[in-house]
Design brief:
Strand content: 5-15%
Shape: elongated
Structural class: alpha/beta
Number of strands: 10
Number of domains: 5
CATH topology of the largest domain: Rossmann fold
Radius of gyration: 38 Å
Number of helices: 27
CATH architecture of the largest domain: 3-Layer(aba) Sandwich
């Protein structure tokens, strides 16, 4: 038991070439050593367990080596290397933990030691871990030493939080940013360690350990030791996820199949199975989000390298991704992301997850709340116009009054579209919205198509009914940012004044100016609708219509306060405001 050494220490790199996942940084350090261009202060920053302190020790060992190899590595056999590997290392290399030695006195002691030259070797190296933990006074006491250190002194500062170091320190350092180690590099290193230790492993098990380590090699080796002890030297995928409490990949593939096949009941039963095994709902949602993200990047060969899984799992992702439409993946990710954001504050977490699964199963539908895809009426309006034009030329066919919506009681309201008459006027009484496009009786006859294709579009007569219809049609098509104009148009009264002229009656000058500002847009739509470029529009003010408009929320609230004075007092006492 006393001879056992954990893998993170036993397999700690001793040369630059054995450092995993930091090739660019180690090459830069070796080149600096070979050319003799050494800085006085280095700052190694990055996440935990990625090799900051390890590289600092290798750097300190290499710069004092008297017989370096041609590729710039320490020989490991000279007197300096042997002293480094023994207890004599402390004469040339000083390591300080700034987390527990962060006062001004600790830094003063360090600066006193800097004045003493090295006993053997050319350089004295000071490695300060977690340097961001130094107090502001300690940083200030350290400034002068960093600015003008002796030629033989080199400082290597290591930290996981570079943003906490004051700028005056950063400006005196060469900064090396250590990145997270990729899952592929961690998996390869774990496989090499397992072979040296005589441990049998499965690729998927090592990949799970790599994902769990979050890019840190030290964490990966610690998890590997834990799983090895649990599995007694036979690291399998099933035993690994059992020990690490990780949801099996298979659950995510099964859930996605259920979503694609609209098997909502089966997905809820599978959720119950997952929760009954002790997994948290948030783990399922986050894992499912990652799974759908992997499916998304698997659809395109360009983004396939972003998928950090084994070759066998990569093929499985590619197969399922071929069945998923991008629209489904985009919407599903949005639904699951909203669930993840709301999970912590939800009082009924299970219901929240169940609703997310139900919505995800319907993510590829254009749902209007009734479970059916919404009818698209614009093509129907075009067919009505074509049939009306044909009737105007031949004197037969559907009457105009059947092709337009009935007038509402108030002219300021949006006209109601009579879809029963619209469909009857085009297709006859046998047509239904739910019929398929390819069925008989669901398309206009070839004779009607021939008429509308060969006959030039005639000028439609300007009537109050058609004008109101196309006026409200334009207002309904306006985007959200044009809501003020939409409201003004809905509350206006329009009257035909002649064959090519109509008048718009509004309540005041402000509304008149808004209508006039959009005159060209409105006229273009009206002229196109009637196929008559000669149509003109005038705007008149009718003060009797000043109060005939839809009240806004603020206006409704103001009238409520006038009708009920106690509401004003309630608003004042409790500092209420309308939202």
């Amino acid at each position: 038991m006393s001879d056992y050494i954990v893998s993170a220490r036993k397999y700690r790199p001793t040369t630059f070439s054995s450092v995993v996942g930091q090739g660019a940084l180690t090459s830069t350090l070796k080149n600096a050593i070979n050319t003799g261009k050494l800085a006085n202060t280095y700052l190694f920053c990055g996440p935990r367990g990625v090799g900051k302190t390890t590289c600092a020790r290798i750097f300190a060992k290499t710069i004092n080596c008297t017989n370096r190899t041609p590729d710039g590595e320490a020989c490991g056999e000279c007197e300096s290397c042997r002293s480094f590997n023994s207890e004599l290392r402390s004469y040339n290399v000083f390591e300080l933990d700034a987390a527990s030695n962060n006062s001004v006195d600790d830094i003063r002691t360090l600066t006193e030691q800097v004045r003493i030259p090295p006993m053997n070797g050319k350089y004295k190296v000071y490695i300060i871990d977690e340097v961001h933990m130094l107090s502001t006074s300690a940083f200030n006491a350290f400034l002068k030493t960093l600015e003008e250190p002796p030629k033989y002194a080199i400082f290597i500062l290591a930290t996981t939080e570079k943003h906490k170091i004051i700028p005056t320190i950063l400006s005196r350092c060469q900064i090396y940013d250590f990145g997270r180690i990729s899952n592929a590099d961690i998996t390869a290193h774990l496989k090499a360690v397992a072979e040296k230790e005589g441990i049998t492993t499965e690729p998927e098990a090592l990949n799970i350990i790599a994902e769990k380590s979050d890019g840190g090699m030290r964490d990966a080796l610690s998890i590997f030791d834990q799983v090895t002890s649990f599995t007694n030297g036979h690291v399998t995928y099933a035993r690994t996820i059992e020990n690490l409490n990780v949801i099996d990949y298979d659950y995510y593939f099964r859930l996605t199949d259920m979503f694609l096949e609209k098997r909502i009941s089966d997905s809820l039963l599978l959720l119950n199975d997952i929760l009954s095994k002790g997994f948290d709902g948030s783990h399922l949602i986050s894992g499912l989000m990652l799974h759908l993200r992997n499916l998304l990047v698997s659809r395109d060969p360009v983004t396939l390298p972003l998928l950090e899984v084994s070759d066998e799992m990569r093929e499985r992702y590619r197969t399922q991704a071929a069945r998923c439409q991008p629209k489904f993946l985009y919407r599903a990710l949005k639904i699951l992301n909203d669930c993840d954001l709301n999970y912590r504050v939800s009082k009924n977490k299970r219901l929240l997850v169940e609703l997310a699964l139900i919505q995800t199963a319907q993510a590829d539908e254009d749902d209007d709340g009734s479970g059916r895809k919404p009818a698209r009426l614009r093509p129907i309006f075009n067919k009505i116009a074509a049939r009306q034009q044909s009737a105007a030329v031949t004197g037969t066919g559907t009457q105009v009054k059947e092709a337009v919506p009935e007038q509402p009681a108030r002219k300021s309201a949006i006209p109601t579209i009579r879809t029963d008459k619209l469909f009857t006027s085009i297709y006859g009484n046998s047509v239904s919205l739910t019929k398929d496009k390819g069925k008989q009786g669901n398309a206009p006859s070839s004779e009607a198509k021939h008429d509308t294709a060969d006959t030039p579009k005639p000028v439609k007569p300007l009537t109050d009914e058609l004008l109101t219809f196309h006026w409200q049609e334009f207002a309904a098509s306006l985007p959200h940012q044009d809501n003020p104009l939409k409201n003004r148009m809905i509350n206006s009264r329009i009257t035909v004044m002649g064959p090519d002229k109509f008048d718009v009656f509004v309540g005041n000058h402000m509304v008149a100016d808004e209508i006039k500002a959009s005159r060209e847009r409105i006229l273009n739509h009206i002229r196109d609708s009637f196929n008559n470029p000669a149509i003109e529009m005038t705007v008149s003010i009718d003060e009797s219509r000043n109060m005939e408009h839809i009240l806004t929320r603020d206006e409704q609230y103001a009238r409520m306060k006038e009708a009920n004075p106690s509401l004003k007092e309630l608003e004042k006492v409790f500092s209420l405001e309308l939202r």
